[in-house]
Amino acid sequence: xxxxxxxxxxxxxxxxxxxxxxxxxxxxxxxxxxxxxxxxxxxxxxxxxxxxxxxxxxxxxxxxxxxxxxxxxxxxxxxxxxxxxxxxxxxxxxxxxxxxxxxxxxxxxxxxxxxxxxxxxxxxxxxxxxxxxxxxxxxxxxxxxxxxxxxxxxxxxxxxxxxxxxxxxxxxxxxxxxxxxxxxxxxxxxxxxxxxxxxxxxxxxxxxxxxxxxxxxxxxxxxxxxxxxxxxxxxxxxxxxxxxxxxxxxxxxxxxxxxxxxxxxxxxxxxxxxxxxxxxxxxxxxxxxxxxxxxxxxxxxxxxxxxxxxxxxxxxxxxxxxxxxxxxxxxxxxxxxxxxxxxxxxxxxxxxxxxxxxxxxxxxxxxxxxxxxxxxxxxxxxxxxxxxxxxxxxxxxxxxxxxxxxxxxxxxxxxxxxxxxxxxxxxxxxxxxxxxxxxxxxxxxxxxxxxxxxxxxxxxxxxxxxxxxxxxxxxxxxxxxxxxx
Length: 485
Prior knowledge:
Mean pLDDT: 90
Shape: globular
Number of domains: 2
Number of strands: 17
Largest sheet: 9 strands, mixed
CATH topology of the largest domain: Alkaline Phosphatase, subunit A
CATH class of the largest domain: Alpha Beta
């Protein structure tokens, strides 16, 4: 009863008003001394107090162009003429080596090899192979760092995408952008540290959904979760003031709520309370900063043409690439684009042609635009999906049509800027495009390398949760130094 009496004594009206007055007075004084210190310890530029970066970073920001569904490397970047010569012949057992298949092709009686119907050529001084599906990308190959030997452990979409985004096939871990936000903090007090943009491709419009947990904070503070910017008049839901509420009234309301929340935090010590205060403050500042960022009316006509006319259509990949440039221009730390529609199990030639057209011009434009603005040197751009596609046809192979199943054993990604080598190709696959022949790169290796470029030693960057120290790369992964300048 003595402890209960103390609790009520400390929470009477007199004590409450006294503490609230001190809290509001402190906020007022802080705001006069430093307009960005209103959150104080609640949400500084690096609220975790971690001693990061571990060393001088080569990149300050990341744009991750995630191609959801698994782009076919054999149609885009991994030229395998042998598959055309052996078209229709069964995949040799000596090549497959008993590797597992998905449920979609495991019942096939045969696995007929099929090469790409699209022409390949070498481009640039680097002589990189690119198919006719990607003419704009072909022009910038000397800016790119290709990885031809990516591999993953997951063979189905959900665990494979989750693995790339969080380092685990099981949901519940923090996403890569959340780790970056947690470790490095914000470069802009008026926009979220980690933003997300979604687009749906024309290659296969009705495809697998994406879940918000892919950009979730997991067991980290909710302050670090990705903020999705939607297409349309309300990019961030519930950001506007309700009818009848002025901006000054919203400011007063937030001050009173902050005072009450601070009192709760002092009594109970729940760090999530501080995160909530910081989120309220960020939402208040975003009321001005988000509309300004999303409005592309001030972009010159030649920039719009550079990205393609879809850049003026909200929610398209081209529009999101342009927004990504505007966001990193304002020093948003991590920008994640997801483009759906790459899952061509059937009708691949027609579907992938549309899908490639969605992204080719805008991807190249983004990289060139960053370069001409002096942003590419310290902005890392990453392009790729969750796995590749098989070298054999899923379903019936005809003279003009075929499909390809999921293939986690080898596929292609590329990077640009941010300290990676340009005009460089790393890794090789065998002549069948089925296995890695040289320099394999695992998902955790890619994550470790990205973190290294941001100045983070992935083995030392951990967070203790439920008695265990977790990290993005789990218990594996190593930096691929050959990719770094």
